[in-house]
Every structure is written in structure tokens, then in C-alpha cells.
Protein 1
Amino acid sequence: MTISVRNEQAEAGTFEVRSPGNGDLVGSFPMHTDEDVAATVARARVAADWWAGLTFRERAERLDRFRGIIARRLAQLAGIMHEETGKPHSDAVLEASLSLDHIAWAAKHAPKVLGRRRAGVSLLTANQAASVEYRPLGVIGVIGPWNYPVFTPLGSIVYALAAGNAVVFKPSEFTPGTGSWLVDAFAQVVPEHPVFQLITGDGSTGAALCASGVNKMAFTGSTTTAKKVMASCAETLTPIVAECGGTDALLVDSDADLDAAADAAAWAGMANAGQSCIGTERVYVHTDVHDAFLEKLVTVARGQRAGTDPDATIGPITLPSQIETIRRHINDVLRRGGRAVLGGADAIDGSLVQPCVLTDVPEDSPAVTEETFGPMLTVSRVGDMDEAVKRTNATTYGLGAAVFSKKRGTEIADRLRCGMVAVNAVFNYPQLPSLPFGGVGDSGFGRIHGPDGLREFSFARSTARQRFTPPLALTTFGRTAKTDSLATKIMTLLHGRH
Ligand code: NAD
């Protein structure tokens, strides 16, 4: 893969990061080995004990200060993100700023979601005081992608930290500088112990983290890599949360606000150069409004330009290998009778891909079935919304979706098989820290964000305290025939009529 090409020039034991826009050297980082990873995890274990010993309030106070640093230095952080991924600076600022609400939410809500609370008792267990609390797992390994190098990993990291865990973070080999910035900022507010540490490297370093015996892995990346992570973690029975890719659809009903739908489709499909896990890749439009929608979409998309200059609204494709995937998807569509209403084969120039809108695309085309990860949308006419739902659900992925409809938005949304749905908007659910984020099928399992995201990095601990000796003592060899008979009568009375 690309990293080895980069390493031909890099010093032994290091790798270089180059700007996807102009190839400039952005930085050089250590390629951490199995031993480095093991030592980091060992340090994290000590830190985890200390961090778990703090109160929720003490952890929240530190997370709040971490949030403050990010908020005050957004431009600096965004500068590194821009250099490493090529995304426009303003998009980088937006991404980093959207993580702030999550840090605040996780810190504030951890005590309520995870703290000890009473659990119910039944007639036969009325003598018990039952309670449950959610305890930290210990050390969480986080493996991140490059496309949202702040928002995405922090979605695991801050929830894991708020739940009382230490974190060892391996950012993508394309964005180690961004990861390093985050870890340094956290160390400023938590200087006592290395609660949040960085390891850098490619897949081999990630594999070492999977095998290191951490208490849980939070993986975000492709479905293919998630399977390798899961197989490796199986060796040590290390649980994982897998946040993978998708081929998200946007559905446009006949009564939709077409201006809003076109604007949203263009943004969800083309912002970040289309390199968004929850980015729209497919659009299904009711036949009554198909032509009007397409015209509006093309107008918005034509107004966008991929480039490396400050005025470009779309940055370069970050991963050099992705260009071939995008080219293959476009060529397949064109070869099989599809049309490029905007862009097409010549939209690709080096690492830049200009906006593409494709129609008459066969449903078994890779542009529909696979993640394209480029500023490209396929738009298909459907006879009714039943067909739109059916075609949306005909995928092995199931991450997110969006529905535009004035009257039936929620009704249509409810029929989609995916983890998250936006109605009359796009990308709104990740902005709501109270909502769990994640997918089904090939898009992964487990959840980050929200109460589920906090519980994902903890284990349920149950306590049942006997307050007084029960009149019917059941768990004793001294149980009498009379007790048995009475207990059976009570149970039959309680449950027998069902
Ligand atoms: P990737 O799978 O190539 O790499 C992800 C991470 O895994 C990197 O840090 C990489 O070094 C590491 N890795 C590679 N091989 C490994 C191995 N054998 N063991 C352990 N770690 C290994 O993905 P990517 O190209 O960085 O990211 C893009 C993908 O991520 C897309 O599919 C996108 O949809 C997905 N994504 C999903 C979400 C989500 O929340 N669901 C968010 C962002 C991106």
C-alpha cells in the first residue's frame, strides 16, 4: 500500500506523511512496533487505574478543559487536518468544532448513564435491594480513519474516557499529526498519568494493538479491515465496536422541498470530496419530481470545484489508491449505458475529482453497491417510495440514510434498514450527542455517542443486597416441602394465567 512507497524515502522505523494536494512533506512519525505497543498498553494500565479512581466530576472537569483547548485552538488543529487530508480549512474547522458538544455531553451525562441506580425487585425477591452500575473496562484501543480524523475517533475516545477508561489511540497513517495534537492537548489537562496515549504506524501497528490484550477495541475504518481486527481480537476474546463504511441513500418524495433536497444531496455526497462514511452515494427520486430535482442538483453541484486553493469547496482525494476506485465506478456506469449528467471520466485530474452526477445506473453497478468515496452521486428515478425503500435496503451495508418528504418523512424513514436516518436534512444525527451512532450489517456493530456510546466502554455490574431474611427461603438446602409448595403456588398464580 501507499505507506510502503512513502517509507522508501523515510528513515528506518519511521514513515512520512505527505499532503494529498501537492505532495509536500507534512511530517515524519515513528512506525511503532509490537514492543512499543505493548509498553504503551502497560503504561495505560497504570493510568487506567488512576483515572478510574477519580470521580465522574473530576473526570468531567478535565474533559471540559480539554474541550476548552480544542475550542481555543481550532484554527491550529484545522491547519494540521487540512495539511494531512487536503480537506478545505473551513471544513476542518467545522469538523473539529462539532466534536466539542460531544465532549461536553459525555462528560456531563456519564454519571447519570453509568452511575449506580436502583433496579426493580419482584414479589419473591422483595427482600433484596438491587442496583446496577457501569464500570470502566480498563484500557481501550482506538483505531481511527483519516477521513474525519478528529470527529470520528473522538466519538470513541471521549466517551471511553468519560466512562473512566484509559485510551491508546492509533490514528490512520495518513493523519498521525492530527492524532498527536489531540493527545498532546489532553496531556496538558491531565499531566499526572498517560491516560490518553498515541501510537503511530500502519496496519501492522494497528494489528499489534488488537493483539495487545486491551480490554476493548474501538475500530473505525473499512469493512474489510474490521474483519481482520475482529479475527485478531478473537484470539484474546477482546470485544470490539466496529464503525465501518456504507453506501447511504437519500430518498426524495414527490412532495419534498426540492431546493433543500438538492442542496443536501450535493453536500452529503460531495463535501469532504465525498469521503464520508455517512455520505450520500445513491439518490432515489420519485418520478414526478425526478427531472426538476436533477436539474437543481446539477446546478448546485456545478457550482462546486475541487482544488487545492483556498477558494475550492472540495479538496483532493486523500488516498491515492481511491482514485482508481472512483475511475472504475464511473467507467462501469458509462460502459453499461449510464449517463454522466455532470462530470464523468474526465472529471479526474491527478488527486482532484470534480463533481459527478450519474443517471441510468444499473443497480448492480459498483457505483451503487460499493463505497465510491468520491464527490459522486448516482440519481435514479423510482415509480413510488415503496420502490425507493426497497432499493435503498437492497445493500449489505446499513449505516445511515436521509429522507426528504413533507408529509411522510418519518413513515418512510421507519422502513429503512440502517442505524441512523435523517429526515429533511443530512448529517444532522452525528451533531446530536444524545443519539447513538453506528450501523448494521457490513456497516458494523456497537455504538458510539449517546448513552449507548458511554455503555459501550463499560461493563454492567450488578449488586443484590439482602435486606432481611425472606419468609420463603429458596436458596438453601434447608428448604422444606411446604416452602416448595408455597413457592410453586405463588409462581403459578403470578404466571399461570398467561
Ligand atoms: P482502513 O480500513 O483502510 O483503515 C482504518 C484503520 O485501520 C487505519 O488506522 C489503519 O492503519 C488500520 N488498519 C489497517 N489494517 C489493519 C489491521 N490488519 N489491523 C488493525 N488495524 C489495521 O480505512 P480508512 O481508509 O482509514 O477509512 C475509510 C473507511 O472508514 C471507509 O470505509 C469509511 O466509510 C469508514 N469510516 C466509517 C466511519 C463510521 O463511523 N462508521 C467513520 C469514518 C470512516
Note: The longest helix spans residues 89-114.
Protein 2
Amino acid sequence: MGQKNSVTVTDNRNGKSYEFPILDGTIGPSVVDISSFYKNLGMFTFDNGLTSTASCQSAITYIDGEKGKLMYRGYDISYLATQKIFADTAHLLLYKKLPTDEEREAFRLELKRRSFIHEGMIKLFDAFPDNAHPMAILSAAVSTLSTFYFDHLDVDSPSEYMEMAKRIIAKIPTIAAFSYRYSRGLPIIYPNLDRGFVENILYMLRAFPYDHVNLKPIEVKALDTILTLHADHEQNASTTTVRTVASTHAHPYAAVSAGIGALWGRAHGGANESVIRQLEVIGDVKNVEKYIAKAKDKNDPFRLMGFGHRVYKNFDPRAAILKNIRDQLMKESDIKIDENLVEVANKIEETALKDEYFIKRNLYPNIDFYSGLILRALGIPKDMFAVIFVIGRAPGWIAQWIELKEHNERITRPRQLYVGPEERTPKY
Ligand code: SDX
């Protein structure tokens, strides 16, 4: 009958069968290669939301949703988040290895040198209304980088796409900080080359001219950890968007700009902002039961933001690390974590984790359930939360763009189940 390493599919309408090879990865679930499915069986497969579909082969990130495990290129996320810094993780994602001390310093210098943006780009901020959401500005500005930095746009040259990669990673924090300062009518603060990559983010958001700023090491470490935890996450919606754009041979600026748009949705990277808004609406622990009931009510569109995940059917390992960071910050006397919101969040978590509805559906707190409270304690406004997510995710998106390029993958072009009208063109 069938080969050992294959799956046989039989169309019971006509008895036609076909064997499809099973491909094994390093670890994790194998895949059935169905690329010849339509050719041999005349049908498409259907997988709404791509829940059971592997869209590519990748060596970047591995997630075990059952065990709540996350690795970047074989390194466990808790190792990277506690023993390394974000620059190490960015280097690991881009160059496939953790840097030596010399490589780390060289990489950090490369990013520093590229952290300024062309002065002509500053006019872009004037084009937006004051209340423009920073994600809209960021998506436009990243695409605009390709017009000001048009000297290295050859997507087939590794040295040129690594140049684009470093420019994107280095300039996104500056664009993000400028969009925040502009929206508040504050003087823009340029990157300070005496400060580190992550420290500069808080510096550009908070400082006033002539270096009046107060940054605490624990705040920089908290933000560094948040960026590390967000750096990549397998084939999520925004990464799939980046890879789809990459498959058309568009450059990384276009792909990352599209990824920003995809990440912005509240079901994805916009969830961290929605979590805080939701905690503010719930407002008090005595209202938690009412909102848990709304979340369980099929007729109510209300969902518990920061809960549930397509892959994690256990605790999101990133959430566990952030919960610890949050509690550490709470012990810091001069860092203001909104204790009432923490109380409400803890009550939601305690109640949901004991509730049959959430247990049966494996709904646990995800990364977004905690990140917002920490970002808020760092004085970062809600509309900048998804922007911080972008700063973290940029190295992962670009690593995925490069991987697709290196594998010379075909253009992404799925098919569909057509349910529209039959031919009804009038005679003419
Ligand atoms: C991120 O994919 C990634 O890796 C993303 C990310 C990354 O790093 O890139 O991890 C970042 O996006 C994290 C997720 C942030 N989003 C939220 O916190 C929004 C709230 N969560 C839900 O919208 C939802 O859980 C999703 C979008 C995260 C997952 O959606 P799925 O996998 O499509 O799950 P589903 O909608 O099919 O839900 C399964 C069941 C349903 O009930 P039944 O139809 O089976 O009765 O669980 C219910 C859902 O109604 N459910 C929820 C719920 N999440 C799922 N019910 C109440 N509240 C929720 N939050």
C-alpha cells in the first residue's frame, strides 16, 4: 500500500487515490507536501485562517504551543531575555549566530551610525494631523525610506539587503520617537550617540533639549526585554504579510511597511493597546465577573484582549517573563505602575484560569496581556505600544524576508473556494 513516509488521500466520489510525501523537520510536527494536490486530484485544500497549514520551511523560530516553548534559532526565549540583550537577539536573527563581544560592538556601532533619518524626511511628519496614530506614520515613513535611501535597493544583492536591514532596524526607533514628539507638539530629540540602542528609545521619547532626562537602568532593561520577546514569532499574520510581499521581490522597506499595517490590528499587535483600554473600561475588580461573562457570551462581540493565542494552548512563555518584569517594576518606588489596573488584570487572570470556558478552549494570557502595563509604567503612551512591538519585531521580519530570498521561494499565490454567482453575462 502506501510508502512509509506518506499520506494517501482518496476521493470517495470516484475512488481516485493519491499519495503525498511527509516531510520531517528538525523538531516539531511533520508536514504533508500537498503542492501536487490540485494537479492530481483536481481540488484545492481548504484551511480557513491557515490553522493547519505550513506556509514555508524556516530555520528561524520554533514554537511548541502545547508546552509553551519558544526558541529563536535554537536558543530558548528565557535564555535570550535574561542572559542576553536585544542587540544580541537581533544579530542572531539576522546573522544566524549570537555575536562575540567584538561582533556585538561592531553591530551596535553599525546601528548607531544609521540611527539618524534624512532631514528631508522630517517634512513627512508635517503632512499628518496632530492626532495621527503613530502606526500610520510609521508604516508610511518606513516605505518612504526607500525614496531617501535609494542607493542600495537591489533585492538580489546580499550586501544591499543587509544595508536595508540595518537602516530599517536603526531608523524605526527614531521615526517612532519623532512621530510621538510631533503629535504632542514637543521638540524632536535626535538620537544621542553616547547612549545604547534601547536607552536611546526612552531618551528620544522623554528628553528635553540639552539632555534633561532621567532614565533608570531597570527601565532600559525592561524595554530591552520587551523588544527581545517581540523579536520574532514564526509565521504569524504580520510575518506572513512580510513574506508574501517579499515573494513578489519587493524590497524590505515595502515588506516591513506592509507588516506594520498587518500588525496594527487589535487581534494581533494592536492587542497591547486594547488590553490597557479594556482594563481602564473594566476599571475595578468588582466589574471583572461582568466582563468575563461578556467574553463568554457568543452573542457579545466583546473578547478578553490579551487572552488566547492561535498557537499557544498553554501559557505564552513571553507572558510569564513579562509578568515577572511587571512585578519587579512594582517594587521600584519611583516607577509608577497603575496598581488598580494591575489588580484588575490579576483578577481577570485568576478568574479566567479557573473558568471552564477558558480552560476548555486553552485560553491563557498572551504577551499582550502584560506588555501594556509595563510600557505604561515606562511612560510610553498607549498609541505607541504597537510601535514598540514593531521596533522589536523588525529584526524578525527582515530575517524572514532574507530567508525567503535565500530559498528563492516562489510568489505566494493561494487559490480559493469560489461561492459567487454563476455566469450571468447578458448577450451583447
Ligand atoms: C499576538 O500569531 C502570533 O504569533 C501573534 C503574536 C506574535 O508574537 O506575533 O503572538 C502576537 O497577536 C498575540 C495575540 C493578541 N491578540 C489578542 O490578545 C486578541 C484577543 N485574542 C483573540 O482575538 C484570539 O484568541 C486570537 C486572535 C489571539 C486567536 O484567534 P484564533 O486562533 O482564531 O482563535 P478562535 O478565534 O478560533 O478562538 C477559539 C475559541 C472561540 O470560541 P468557540 O467558537 O470555540 O466557542 O476561543 C474563543 C473563541 O470565541 N476565544 C475567546 C478569546 N480568544 C478566543 N473568547 C474570549 N476572549 C478571547 N480573547
Note: The chain has a mean pLDDT of 95.
